[in-house]
From TrEMBL:
Residues 35-353 form the Inosine/uridine-preferring nucleoside hydrolase domain. InterPro entries: Inosine/uridine_hydrolase_dom, IUNH, Ribo_hydro-like. GO terms for molecular function: purine nucleosidase activity. One of its GO terms (cellular component) is cytosol. Keywords: Glycosidase, Hydrolase. This is Inosine-uridine nucleoside N-ribohydrolase. It comes from Paraburkholderia megapolitana. GO terms for biological process: purine nucleoside catabolic process. The lineage of its organism: Bacteria, Pseudomonadati, Pseudomonadota, Betaproteobacteria, Burkholderiales.
Length: 370
């Protein structure tokens, strides 16, 4: 049973004044660009890294993270929620950033087809479908630094939180969509009036001109719930995509790993968990995925090469599930009504400077008045 509880009301950060002492002030992030992270959360893989980076940027007053919504994708919802709750405590933002549980299953799925695709693609990454779904807390795997000790899920569902927040801040909220977009599609279907009120969506998802990492043609996030993807693509919301085409070119190298994990002057709860979770990842040619979205959101010039096209996705069960069709000039029926920008090359050196800096900052998040 997946119970949801109300966490304590949000309270402002405490700001350390440069001249010494502690004083209360309006949070530095109050007027910063507003975002919601919609995530198939993992402890310190790409989703967990993205969350750590974003909360550090929040401490710097560069973004205002309104909430973390969770959806089944990398793992089953119950396991992901446990990781997300621990993450807000690890970063010290449990009284500022709420965690909202969302969809446990895609809008549309065929288990027999999924099993057939797994058999046909033994090297594919199928996320939650690769393991049994936990049904009790006792079946969950604790993060390396343990489960959350006091933080609970917000009572409100992820979709309802999105609806309420977008209406509260019309034309101000960006969705960083780094999991299957089931929660967002649910919100749009339930309250279509929010469509013109969403500022933009930045995805990590899809494979435009490269093979998939789930089945032969589908990238996991978009393969997992292609009907949800199509539901959102068909809206008029401004949308940008960080697809496999570019994430395949941004690898986690041993040098970057060492800068995060083995710097003796920058040991934190994040670097320790990062080291545990990603030990050996370099040998497996691990690429950087979801974290590119926050860099692109901060400054789209991190993308040094982009393309723009009308996009559609195959929602049928089978070996074409999740296949993205790109229409450079004219859209076919069912494709996005407007051209969508997708990134094909990133400024890796500039990105990794940001990546290493944010993942090695003090934890809990420290906000200093300038």
């Amino acid at each position: 049973m997946n119970l949801k509880y109300q966490i304590l009301p949000a309270i402002p950060f405490m700001f350390a004044a440069c001249g010494g002492g502690i004083q209360t002030a309006p949070p530095a992030y109050t007027n910063a660009p507003k975002i919601i992270i919609d995530s198939d959360f993992n402890t310190m893989g790409d989703d967990g890294q993205l969350f750590a980076m974003t909360t550090q940027l929040m401490g710097q007053g560069k973004v205002n993270l309104l909430g973390l919504t969770v959806v089944t994708g990398n793992d089953w919802l119950l396991q992901e929620e446990a990781g997300a709750l621990k993450a807000v405590e690890r970063m010290g933002v449990q009284n500022t950033v709420g965690v909202y549980g969302g969809a446990d299953y895609p809008l549309q799925y065929n288990v027999a087809s999924i099993r057939a695709q797994q058999a046909a693609n033994p090297q594919g990454y199928f996320g939650a479908w690769s393991r049994p779904e936990p049904t009790t807390q006792s079946q969950l795997v604790a993060p390396p630094d343990g489960f959350a000790t006091s933080t609970k899920l917000q009572a409100q569902s992820a979709a309802d939180f999105m609806i309420q927040t977008i209406k509260r801040y019309p034309n101000q909220v960006t969705i960083l969509e780094v999991g299957p977009p089931t929660n967002l599609a649910t919100a749009i279907t339930k309250a279509p009036e929010i469509v013109p009120l969403i500022k933009q969506i930045v995805y990590m998802g899809g494979a435009m001109a490269v093979p998939g990492n789930a089945n032969a043609v589908g990238e996991l996030n978009w393969w997992f719930d292609p009907l949800a993807v199509r539901t959102v693509l068909q809206t008029t919301i401004p949308q940008s995509v960080i697809p496999l085409d570019v994430t395949n070119t941004v690898p986690l190298t041993q040098t970057i790993y060492n800068e995060i994990v083995n710097n003796p002057s920058k040991q934190t709860a994040v670097t320790k968990v990062y080291g545990t979770i990603n030990a050996g990842a370099v040998d497996e040619n691990t690429n950087i995925y979801d974290t590119l979205t926050i860099a692109y959101f901060l400054d789209p010039t991190y993308a040094v090469q982009t393309k723009s096209a009308y996009l559609d996705i195959d929602t049928t069960s089978g070996e074409d599930q999740g296949h993205v069709t790109v229409y450079p000039d004219q859209p076919a029926a069912g494709a996005s009504p407007q051209k969508i920008t997708y990134v094909t090359q990133f400024d890796n050196n500039r990105f990794f400077n940001l990546y290493v800096d944010l993942l090695t900052r003090p934890v809990p998040v420290v906000t200093v008045l300038q």
